[in-house]
Amino acid sequence: MNIAVVILNWNGVQLLEQFLPSVIAYSPEATIYIADNASTDESISFVEQHYPAVKIVKNTDNYGFAKGYNEALKHIDAEIYALVNSDVEVTANWLSPIIDTFRNEPQTAIVQAKILDFKNKEYFEYAGAAGGFIDKYGYPYCRGRLFDTIEKDKGQYDDEREIFWASGACFFIRSYVYKELHGFDDDFFAHQEEIDLCWRAINKGYAIKYNYKSTVYHLGGATLKQGNPKKTFLNFRNSLLMLTKNTPYDSLHRILFSRMILDGIAAIQFISQGKFSHFVAILKAHYSFYTLFSITYKKRGSFQTKKYYNIKSIVYQYYVNRGKVFAR
Question: Which pTM value belongs to this model?
Fold first, then answer.
């Protein structure tokens, strides 16, 4: 099975120096690509000098995660795309279990590996952990990570199971499905575009799977730190865009109204914590959402699944019931 490992890069020469060697050492089955978002540092010359076998696709601008991959993948021919962050360390035989899943399960379109924390390798990593889900209000969470609570990997999620979304940090997708779905949504720029893509895949009848037999370690926060207001802006806005595109019509107005209230509570909480820049980020997120609403609504497909994996409120479970770990 022809697989392309595609690493999106923007001015990340230090990350490439640190993490690219593991990808090269442990990916004999794949062709490795750097998708470069018009870097101005030494990224390209470093790869060309030290790893001439790695192919480079040069985008003409910094398109962010979504459009950055969309543009680069137009020039890459493979059956499977392995989209891997530049701050990910892979392990021996990380590709074999994923390839087996695709070979044995024709309806599986997207697969995620187990994602552990590069800085603390006994624990799951924030962005993806052991597979993602959404709650009744569209809040994403993971097995192994609820909000800021990160679980230690004790083998509790050593399984192969269906999930709702796979992390963009290590995201495997059949190329024909990627093309059928027209890739990521450019309007997202970065953050939650992979959840939107997974949701659209599920709406088309495809399955998303997690396979623990493939393990990677993610540094995380290499582009935007967790406390960056821009991250807050993108997460809040893109969550609303995603809901508008994918929520069943009979639930859409109720869920959007509920999110307005919950986002308002989050904004007030930021004020109480003295995080005024994050409060402003939520206001900007909603303003941006309103300006994009009509365009986004037109992107709705002909069918929106009611196949939610957890119809409960993860906010209520976490903050009221004090449920700090994944429970189902």
Answer: 0.93
Neighbour-count burial for 113-128, b at 16+ CB within 10 Å, e otherwise = bbbbbbeeeebbbbbb
Question: pLDDT tens digit string along 277-300?
Answer: 999 999 999 999 999 999 999 999
Bridge pairing between strands 170-174 and 80-84: antiparallel
CA separation, residue 280 to residues 145, 171, 265, 291 (Å): 26, 32, 13, 17
Alpha-carbon gap, residue 284 to 286, rounded angstroms: 5
Structure tokens at 125: 């990593």
Quote the strand ranges of the chain, DSSP E: 3-9, 30-36, 55-58, 80-84, 88-90, 108-117, 132-134, 140-142, 145-146, 149-150, 160-163, 170-174, 207-218
Express each pLDDT in 58-74 by its tens digit.
999 999 999 999 999 99
